[in-house]
Amino acid sequence: MTDLLMTGGLVADNKLTGIYAILPADLDMDNLLVKAEAALKGGVRILQFRDKKQGYKRQIKRAKALRSITRDYGAHFIINDSVTLALGAKADGVHLGRDDAPNLIQLRNEVGDDFLIGITCRADAAFAKSALKDGASYISFGAVWKTHSKPEVPEIGLNRLVKARQMFPDANLCAIGGITEHNIAQVKAAGADCAAVISGLFAADDIQIRAEKLVKIWNRV
C-alpha cells in the first residue's frame, strides 16, 4: 500500500487518488502500449483507455493488452464509455459520460460493488449528487481550465472545484481539463483526490520523465 502511495496511485476502499492518465484515442497498437508503459514506469497508477473507432475485436485486443500491462504495475485500469468492453477486458472499472449512464442503479446492481464506475459531471452539482446516490464510485469535475482535448467544454475554474469538494466531502473527486505540471499542485490543494491528464502527460517528449514529475509534485502537496 505504501509503495502505491509513493508512486502516485493509492487503492483504498476502491478510492482512486493521484495521477489519472487518459491515453490519447485511436493510437496504433505499438504506440499505445509504448505510451502506456512509459506512464506506468513513471509512477502513474490509474490508466484510462479510450477507443473511438468501431470494431469490438480491435478494441478488446487493445484493452486486454493494456489490462496485462497495468496488472504488471499494480495499476487501476479504466475503460471509457463501454461497460461491455470493460467487463470483457476484466478492467477495474468504466468511466461514463452523462448520457452513457441512464440507469446507474441497475448498472451498479449488475456489476457489483467492487467495479469502479466514474461519472462525468462537468460542474453540475445536482447531477453529481444523484450519481453518487445511485452508485457512482467517483465523479469528475471540469474542465478546470480550457483544454485542447475537448475545447467545447466550458472552463469551470478552481473555485468551482473547491465548492465541489465542500459540497461532497466524502466523495472520490477527480479533476479534469487543462491540467499540467504547472498547475496540478493547485488542483490537489483545491481538494481533488485525483487529476486527469491527457496532453499534460502524453504530449511530452519523454512521457516517463513527465509522469515522474507529475507524481512528485502531487505527492509533495
How are the secondary structure elements laid out?
Layout (H helix, E strand, L loop, with lengths): L1 H5 L11 E5 L6 H13 L4 E4 L6 H17 L3 E5 L2 H6 L4 E4 L7 H8 L4 E7 L2 H10 L3 E4 L15 H11 L5 E4 L7 H6 L4 E4 L1 H4 L4 H14 L1
Parallel strand pairs: 1-2, 1-8, 2-3, 3-4, 4-5, 5-6, 6-7, 7-8
What key phrases describe this protein's structure?
221 residues, alpha/beta, TIM Barrel, eight-stranded parallel beta barrel, globular, disordered N terminus
CATH class equals Alpha Beta
CATH architectural name: Alpha-Beta Barrel
Largest beta sheet: what is the strand line-up?
Answer: 1-2-3-4-5-6-7-8
What is the straight-line distance between the termini?
A: 19 Å
Mean pLDDT: 91
The biggest beta sheet reads: 8 strands, parallel, barrel
CATH superfamily: Aldolase class I
Q: What order do the SSEs take from the amino end to the carboxyl end, as H and E?
A: HEHEHEHEHEHEHEHEHH
Multimeric status of the protein = single chain
**Number of separate strands:** 8
Beta-strand level of the residues, as a percent range?
Answer: 15-25%
Helix content: 40-55%
CATH T-level fold name: TIM Barrel
Radius of gyration: 16 Å
Counting structural domains, the number is: 1
SS field, number of helical segments: 10
Uncertain runs are 1-12
The helix/strand class is alpha/beta
Shape: globular
